[in-house]
Amino acid sequence: MQVTETNTDGLKREFKIVIPAQQVQSQVDDRLRELSGQVKLPGFRPGKVPLSLLKQRYEQSVKGEVLERAVHDGSHKLMNEHNIRPAGLPKVEIVKFEDGGDLEFSVALEVIPEITPMDFKTVSLEKVTVDVPESEVTESLERIAKRQRQSAPVENDRPAEKGDVVVIDFLGRIDGVEFAGGKAEGQYLELGSSMFIPGFEDQLIGAKKGDKKVVKVQFPADYGNAELAGKEAEFETTVNEVREMKDVPVDDELAKSLGLDNLDALKKSAREQIEKEYGSIARARTKRKLLDVLADKHDFELPEGLVEAEFSAIWQQIENDMKNDRLEAEDKGKSEEQLKAEYRDIAKRRVKLGLLLSEVGRINNIQVPNEDLTRAVIAEARRYPGQEKQVIDYFQKTPEALNQLRAPIYEDKVIDFILDLAQLSERKVSPADFAREEEEAAKSA
């Protein structure tokens, strides 16, 4: 195989690869000999079909197969022998191939730029931790107890109040015609929960067991079912029962009902969960600041193909948002040229940080353990109750999908590696200050 570099322009490379005709024909003959043991032709025993007859019948199809394999293997060999790290898929084009002649093809690609990571020990960042007060733990316990409440029939047959549960039958009509999904029997509905169409629950406050009411409502304009959106409806409603919610005390019995030993264990679990939630948000804040530093401190040429692919993905989403009037407030009123310029800068930043983090991971041999990937697959499967096996099978059979799960895990491990080297100062804040700082950070972003 003869390799000639024909063009070098920044990160762009082009090569001409020539594979001698004799080598191509040799591969064709080898493949035909393999077929001789597989094909069955009348008058010949398996493995005894003459090569000349095989050539007559199968040479053209075998040549196509050999050609495809030769181009693939030649491109792969080019990358290995010339230590090329492509940024994206190479563009391969057959230049010349005739019977009895050499195979000549070109390979055009962009390469990963040379990246020299900064000394991460010089990075100074602030790590915020939230000092969780006892009052917030208490509030969490009260919310837990509220979720465990049970309903019981009201005493003295009193009218339904906000917060009560009514058990109802209903039949909905639009312009006198029943519609799909507008009928139910024995439906439990907590008044004030906003679970039904706006206005429905309010009209049942004051109802008593056995009451029949016609509830008139209008479906919201943005209702999920387009056939019902914005339309007025009437529901013939029968109140079968009025039930009140019974408070559950925050005590050892509540803890035991949740699988814990006692109230102290429940308090500890609640505090740990709150701290974990704050910690996750705080880590995201530290990560944002770190990425800002990394983007500012590194400057290298970016592969145009990667930038264009990233921008295309972003712009497709922006076009969808414009079409559905979902543009962010700060983007409304800007021209398409302005938006494209801003989002192209975002694409460049993403590509720069992606390449940098990838290079840091490569240099330091950072890997994603199989157990981490397995946990990610299981977590994804749990999002689809009843279909867990199909989801797991899908990831096992689809390497591209598995790589999409691996990517964020890999990025987090690289970020953790950098943060371990950086100089981190710690500052404790109250939940109120933490929320205020997050709001300010969101506005500035």
Automatic annotation (TrEMBL):
<dbReference type="InterPro" id="IPR008880">
    <property type="entry name" value="Trigger_fac_C"/>
</dbReference>
<keyword id="KW-0143">Chaperone</keyword>
<dbReference type="Pfam" id="PF05697">
    <property type="entry name" value="Trigger_N"/>
</dbReference>
<dbReference type="InterPro" id="IPR046357">
    <property type="entry name" value="PPIase_dom_sf"/>
</dbReference>
<comment type="similarity">
    <text>Belongs to the FKBP-type PPIase family. Tig subfamily.</text>
</comment>
<dbReference type="InterPro" id="IPR027304">
    <property type="entry name" value="Trigger_fact/SurA_dom_sf"/>
</dbReference>
<dbReference type="InterPro" id="IPR005215">
    <property type="entry name" value="Trig_fac"/>
</dbReference>
<dbReference type="InterPro" id="IPR037041">
    <property type="entry name" value="Trigger_fac_C_sf"/>
</dbReference>
<dbReference type="GO" id="GO:0003755">
    <property type="term" value="F:peptidyl-prolyl cis-trans isomerase activity"/>
</dbReference>
<dbReference type="Pfam" id="PF05698">
    <property type="entry name" value="Trigger_C"/>
</dbReference>
<keyword id="KW-0132">Cell division</keyword>
<feature type="domain" description="PPIase FKBP-type">
    <location>
        <begin position="163"/>
        <end position="264"/>
    </location>
</feature>
<dbReference type="InterPro" id="IPR008881">
    <property type="entry name" value="Trigger_fac_ribosome-bd_bac"/>
</dbReference>
<dbReference type="InterPro" id="IPR036611">
    <property type="entry name" value="Trigger_fac_ribosome-bd_sf"/>
</dbReference>
<protein>
    <recommendedName>
        <fullName>Trigger factor</fullName>
        <ecNumber>5.2.1.8</ecNumber>
    </recommendedName>
</protein>
<keyword id="KW-0963">Cytoplasm</keyword>
<keyword id="KW-0131">Cell cycle</keyword>
<keyword id="KW-0413">Isomerase</keyword>
<keyword id="KW-0697">Rotamase</keyword>
<dbReference type="Pfam" id="PF00254">
    <property type="entry name" value="FKBP_C"/>
</dbReference>
<dbReference type="InterPro" id="IPR001179">
    <property type="entry name" value="PPIase_FKBP_dom"/>
</dbReference>
<comment type="function">
    <text>Involved in protein export. Acts as a chaperone by maintaining the newly synthesized protein in an open conformation. Functions as a peptidyl-prolyl cis-trans isomerase.</text>
</comment>
